[in-house]
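Q: Hi! Curious about what 3-methyl-2-oxobutanoate hydroxymethyltransferase looks like structurally. Here's the sequence.
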Amino acid sequence: PIRRTTVPQIRARKGGDPIVSLTSYHAHTAAIVDRYADFILVGDSLGMVMHGMDSTIGVPLDLMIMHGRAVVRGTKKALVVVDMPFGTYEESPNVAFRNAATIMKETGCGAVKLEGGARMAETIHFLVERGIPVMAHTGLTPQSSHVMGGFKTQGRDDSTWDAHSADARAVADAGAFAVVLEGMVEPLAARITQEVAIPTIGIGASVHCDGQILVLEDMLGLNPWTPKFVKVYGQLGPMIEDAVSRYAADVKSRAFPTEDEVYR
Ligand code: KIV
Ligand code: NA
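A: Let's find out. The predicted structure is below.
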């Protein structure tokens, strides 16, 4: 059997070949992504993408576990990282450990991801010391969108740069093996990438990061709204529409099923 990419292998890619990552929430798409990605994120964005929620705030732990399991089953090569949803880790290191351990035991994933900088350092240290690899996530952190007043690009005001830098350094010092930098201006992402010893994984954070991640459905053209930081590599929306409309027409005209699809 092909061994999966390990946490130390991702960690060792700092400053090297760019790390490739995408989200996946389900087995068949994950199997395709698995052939190209170094790690696959089962992101809590699945609340919006798969379940029509307005934000990630309402995503429950069991939903992350369900999709995490599907992605682990559907893949064999990439490291699978599962997001800890809002409310399952912020309260204390103990609560975070219990929920992270549940995610790892129930899904078979190789690491968890959680949002927050310096304020999460103690928790990250606690988890890593006890056998749970942690990917951190700083910059624009969607689970705090109510505090931030929406999804705001970070670092437009350079007086905030030191605090953003300190957040990234704090999670690296605490033992995170990589950090997602989301929605921040290019020079800030470049500065953080220079400063921290762990790989930075950018989403809306410029080409200067050590790797990139996108939400799969966004880059496949399935999201009716395309954020500025997304490059659309496929137009699955129109392809699905075309297939569904032709199927509907064939059913109505009795052109489907044909001789080929019938049991004799
Ligand atoms: O939930 C998610 O998809 C994420 C990535 C965008 C980093 O956290
Ligand atoms: Na997320």
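A: A fun detail: The longest strand covers residues 134-139.
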